[in-house]
Task: structure prediction
Amino acid sequence: MTITHTARGIWKPPLWVTPLPEEPPHGIYLRLAERNGFHRIGHFENATGIKLRQVRLGRDLDHLAGMLRCEPRHLNGALIKHQEQGPPIVGGEAIRRKDLMIVGRRACPACLAASAHHRFWWDLRFVSTCPIHAIRLTCRCSCGGKLTWADGSLAKCRTCEDGDVRLLPFEPASCKVIALDRWILSRFGILNSNESVVVIHKLLSAKRSRLSRGLGLLPSVVIALAGRKLLTSTCRRRKCGQ
Ligand SMILES: [Zn+2]
Ligand SMILES: [Zn+2]
Result:
């Protein structure tokens, strides 16, 4: 069904975008602002009457769907679910609230070059690489500025004119960290990681039960967090910089 008016009947941007795979509603919202020529998300929020942070929390999705001329169920709203009580649910997995990036923004320069849309897993603090391209995620624009959700573009920060994350040199990542991230993404239905599971289990066999008991989160996320810590400390000892 085509919607011709938003639920609140207020301004609707003339151009719209189509939700893409792995794209959370707040990523769609930023892309919509950019498509309509807004350089800062705040200006777009004033025009539309809805805030990005509300969209992030799963609110105003009917309004956003109206602006996109689609149904709310097409917005991938289930990717990240915030609950009044209890931890956020990402792709069916419970995670700690502090593991979700809220203000800062990250991106894989190669993913963005392939398709200029945000991927929900870039918001997960315990993912630091893109296993698809075997490089580190960046939190910086090519001008050096920090990427945030106040920017009006997915590919650059709001302080420069012609920065572009896609022009950044790719930063190679440690193969162990990539293996871990590949395994994490497989928990969310992205990528396949039979090989990684072997790596993770080898690394964490001694720590798994204690951590699962202590933190009370789903084992997969606990293992991911523990794996990150273990890999970081191992690599620090080896001075490999990852
Ligand atoms: Zn990538
Ligand atoms: Zn910049």
The pocket of zinc ion (ligand 1) is lined by residues 108, 110-111, 130, 132-133 (CB under 6 Å).
